[in-house]
Sequence to fold (778 residues):
Amino acid sequence: MDNFIFRNPTKIYFGKGMENSTGEAVGEFSHNILLHYGGGSIKKTGLYERITASLKSAGVTWTELPGVMPNPRLSLVQEGIRICREKNIDFILAVGGGSVIDSAKAIAAGVPYEGDVWDFCENKAVPEEAIGLGAVLTIPAAGSESSNRAVITKEEGQLKRAFGSDLLYPDFSILNPELAMTLPPYQRACGIADMMAHLLERYFTNSSPVELTDRMIEAVLKTVIHNGPSVMMDGDTYDAWAEIMWSGAIAHNGSLNTGRLGDWATHQIEHELSGIYDVAHGAGLSALFPHWMRYVINQDLKRFVQIAVRVWNVDQNFKSDEETAYAGIEALEQFWRSLGLPTTLSELGIPGDRLEEMAGKCAGETEKPQGQFVKLYKKDVQAILEMAL
Amino acid sequence: MDNFIFRNPTKIYFGKGMENSTGEAVGEFSHNILLHYGGGSIKKTGLYERITASLKSAGVTWTELPGVMPNPRLSLVQEGIRICREKNIDFILAVGGGSVIDSAKAIAAGVPYEGDVWDFCENKAVPEEAIGLGAVLTIPAAGSESSNRAVITKEEGQLKRAFGSDLLYPDFSILNPELAMTLPPYQRACGIADMMAHLLERYFTNSSPVELTDRMIEAVLKTVIHNGPSVMMDGDTYDAWAEIMWSGAIAHNGSLNTGRLGDWATHQIEHELSGIYDVAHGAGLSALFPHWMRYVINQDLKRFVQIAVRVWNVDQNFKSDEETAYAGIEALEQFWRSLGLPTTLSELGIPGDRLEEMAGKCAGETEKPQGQFVKLYKKDVQAILEMAL
Fold:
């Protein structure tokens, strides 16, 4: 196990009706906030009314900044920073999924920073302070509700980049599984792929031994695999959604990568995809991950055998680790297909003509590789993209 | 899954040599602290010197209060409170196992409280503030390094009682598995029993469904069962100790009882044992838990089957849930015996003459039952104690 330092201070309010505690939760931090959300679905579902009623009753006033799109844009972040400075706002309430929360995190770090907030994404600066931040989660997927990271897209150059800081952990996050039940099926499936990818990125590590976190990641994966098909249905799916929503937060809250270094190349490759093609992050991940796995399988074949047997219940062929390991990858693909997710780029409508460009944006030819489990250079990334076509 | 609110703010420093960061960690909070420890073993191992050197280099001054004994005493807590008030100390550094950390927690809550700190143990008051607290852990067992609870023994009446408050989460805890490697074998085994008991108390619940936390508890149990025998050996056992030490913290940090209500009767019964006989808490738990399990097995037989199959790899008898469930309990007993732990009271030298007295102190005849999974009254507690003889 690697040495580590870990602290996740986010306060989780979990369960039915918890969004009615929003005002009380916000009021512990501020009474003059930015209310940040997406395209307005929260108005259709009635969530907007419940939240603003709760804010009002707690004496909290707010300025609204809607309009966050999937793959949240730098320009809206910059507008949020301007508004917060102008109105002396010191707390942001994000109501939505990972994109809204990520956008709020970038605003929170940007308000006290004198330079351009994009500097954080280019490692030119590190956040030294941030204003407060809370979230009401509507889409279990990104795990941003309990993580210290954010992903932002810069329109110019179609660049999608992540940055992180312990200052970005939300002060609180409100998770009511009922709020996820109105999501369209494709978005539910994409969320499942996203949280599974967060678990897989952590699972593939050269840190050794890491038995406890291996087993805990496997536990969360099995729970997601068991409950995923249930939340694709209609009807009373609260219990299954509760498992999925809490799994999505735990997958990305940092506890499962204590003492181990995850890979994260697939996420970075996907960022190039969705930076250009604006596909859903989870769908990009499901189209890439199995191919990445086949490309790197010989780095630690036994680890692929372990996940096949323990998570996918593959009947182990003790004479052939290869057969067992590949059967695990096939089970993953089959599971994602059963949810209606793509496992190739073609299914996403992505053609083969810009693979080299994406590979080049993602990794250098001899420097700046992606990935920790296996270091991938441009030619490797291009090969994986070609396999994924 | 039950609704819940969860926040664990303890910052964990984990790994080799981490105790050398003590001064830096403390310095974020205070430069005038109480250094609280036990019987002086930290001087023999050299830990005392490393920690005080680290404090000195960070400009931290300290007042020492050694002498914490297993089952920490109220009188020493009261002395600690007096010293902190007298010297305007606002932070306690606990160096030791659960007893030292629990004693420090009681002091931390007692300093700003006008009444007697024992009030918290009798539910006559709830801590409303507390001074700061950090820990350097030397015994993986109690989980107090990352929990919000403390257990204190009042000499008068031989009463051992727990209290809790989110104010009691340590600000930080330093976990270096190397520090556990000098423990005597019996103490290692008692620690393993203690952390397993924390997992079992959480496992047996009527909250349903709770798949994610079931699977995560199982993951931690399997890790402890796999690594427990290794840490009983001498030689280079760092890797196994790392799994055990982090398991012990996670077992009790609150994350594994999110959305579920654990039982905790066995802990309360054990408090009566060790209140009178001063046995090691872990040994008391190993002597009681299997008997509690047999007494309550029909509350949810399927849950006992689940743990038998998933954790103990019992070959399931699909025609007999009883056989499968009991085989799981026997596997637990066998495991504990293999570590040299008692599974009866007789092995602890506890005679049968005060069982009724202990049962009466623990639970009422028709009110104040113990346990959430199954409510136990005096006659039930007495029956379990008799089974355990």
